[in-house]
Specification:
The protein is an alpha/beta fold. The chain is built from 10 helices and 5 strands, in the order E-H-E-H-E-H-E-H-E-H-H-H-H-H-H. A 5-stranded parallel β-sheet has the order 2-1-3-4-5, sandwiched between helices.
Length: about 220
C-alpha cells in the first residue's frame, strides 16, 4: 500500500488529484498539506511516505527554496513537482534541484499515473518531448542550492522579507520576534550565503524566484 502526500494550497485541486490517484492505486493512503510549514510537519510525522507531489507556488514555499529544503531534509523521498507552468527554464531548475519528475497541472490522469509509476520505480519523468530540451544546471546554480539548503526555514523567511525591502523592525513584527533575533538571523544568512550586505543577499534570493503564476491556475 502506497502513501502519498499532496502539497498544494488549492483544496479543489487536492481533492480532484486525490480522487484520481485513489482510482489508479489500490489501497492508496493520501495525506494533504496546504502550505510549506504544514508540509514539513506531515513529512516529520509520516516517515513511511512513498512520494511527495509538490506545488512550487504554495504559500511559504519560496518557490525553489521549498524543494531544496525538502530534498536536503528528506533525500530518500521522491519529489514530483506539479505546476501550471511548462516553462523549460523552470523545469530545468526543478529537475536540477532534485525533483524526480515534473507534471503539468493540465496533464491527463493517464499521464499522471504513468509519471508516478515511473518515479516509484526509481526513474525520472517529464512530459513527452521535454527530456532532451531540459538544460543541465551550471556550477553557479549548484553552489546556490548548497548555500540555500543550509538556511533554516525561519532564516529563509527573513531572507524573503529582505528581498521585499522590509526593515529589521518590520521583519520582527511580521515574524513576531525581537529585532535582536532578526539581526542574528541576518548575520547567519550572510555567513551561510557568503555575502556581506543586504544587496548581495537579495540578489541570491531573486535567483530562487520563479515567474508569477497565471491567474487561471
Amino acid at each position: 500500500m502506497y502513501q502519498f502526500l499532496i502539497a498544494d494550497d488549492h483544496p479543489l485541486f487536492r481533492e480532484a488529484l486525490k480522487g484520481a490517484l485513489k482510482a489508479q492505486f489500490e489501497g492508496l493512503e493520501v495525506f494533504e498539506s496546504e502550505n510549506f510549514d504544514t508540509t514539513l510537519s506531515v513529512l516529520q510525522q509520516q516517515e513511511e511516505l512513498d512520494l511527495l507531489l509538490l506545488d512550487l507556488h504554495m504559500p511559504g514555499n519560496g518557490d525553489l527554496y521549498g524543494l531544496i529544503r525538502i530534498r536536503e531534509d528528506h533525500p530518500s523521498l521522491p519529489v514530483v513537482v506539479v505546476s501550471g507552468s511548462e516553462d523549460l527554464s523552470i523545469i530545468s531548475k526543478v529537475m536540477g534541484y532534485g525533483a524526480m519528475g515534473f507534471i503539468p497541472k493540465a496533464a491527463s490522469v493517464e499521464q499522471i499515473t504513468e509519471a508516478i509509476e515511473q518515479v516509484l520505480e526509481g526513474d525520472t519523468w517529464l512530459p513527452e518531448g521535454m527530456k532532451d530540451k531540459v538544460a543541465e544546471l551550471e556550477g553557479e546554480d549548484k553552489e546556490l542550492a548548497q548555500q540555500v539548503a543550509s538556511l533554516t526555514p525561519q532564516q529563509y523567511k527573513v531572507l524573503q522579507y529582505l528581498h521585499e525591502g522590509l526593515l529589521n523592525k518590520q521583519i520582527a513584527y511580521e515574524l513576531n520576534i525581537s529585532e535582536a533575533t532578526v539581526k542574528a538571523h541576518i548575520t547567519a544568512i550572510f555567513r551561510k550565503l557568503g555575502v556581506y550586505n543586504r544587496t548581495q543577499a537579495v540578489l541570491i534570493a531573486s535567483k530562487l524566484q520563479l515567474e508569477p503564476i497565471e491567474a487561471s491556475e
